[in-house]
Design brief:
114 residues; alpha+beta; 4-stranded antiparallel β-sheet; two-stranded antiparallel sheet
C-alpha cells in the first residue's frame, strides 16, 4: 500500500528496528526504524527514523541529503496522516470509502450505522 504511494521506493525493502544506519564516510547512528532498500544503479540507499529529544522522529538518509529527506517527508506525512485516521475510524466500527479526484485530492467518507 505505501509502496504505491511513494513511487515504488520501498519495493523489496526490509524494516529493521534499533539498528545502525551508515553514511558514505563510515559514520553510523542508531535509528529506531531503518528501511533497508534494494541497491540498484539509481542508488536505493537505506534510510531511517531516529527519535529526537523533543519526541519527534528525525528522518535519516545514508547520504545526509536534506533536500531528498524533505521531499520524501512531504510525500510520507500526508499519506501517513490519512492512513492513521482511516485505521482509527475502522477500529471504531466505521465503514470507509475513499476516492481520488482527477486533481489528486483524496476524499475519505466514513459512515457508521447505529
Amino acid at each position: 500500500m505505501i509502496d504505491n504511494e511513494l513511487n515504488g521506493i520501498l519495493r523489496g525493502a526490509k524494516l529493521e528496528h534499533n539498528t545502525d544506519i551508515h553514511d558514505p564516510f563510515g559514520n553510523s547512528k542508531i535509528a529506531e526504524l531503518v528501511i533497508r532498500r534494494v541497491q540498484n544503479y539509481q542508488g536505493g540507499y537505506d534510510f531511517g527514523f531516529k527519535l529526537s529529544d523533543s519526541g519527534e522522529f528525525q528522518f535519516l538518509t545514508r547520504d545526509g541529503s536534506k533536500r531528498d529527506a524533505q521531499k520524501f517527508m512531504e510525500t510520507l506525512t500526508p499519506w501517513y496522516a490519512k492512513e492513521n485516521a482511516i485505521a482509527a475510524l475502522i477500529a471504531q466500527g466505521f465503514e470507509i470509502e475513499q476516492q481520488t479526484e482527477s486533481n489528486g485530492e483524496i476524499i475519505v467518507t466514513a459512515s457508521k450505522w447505529a
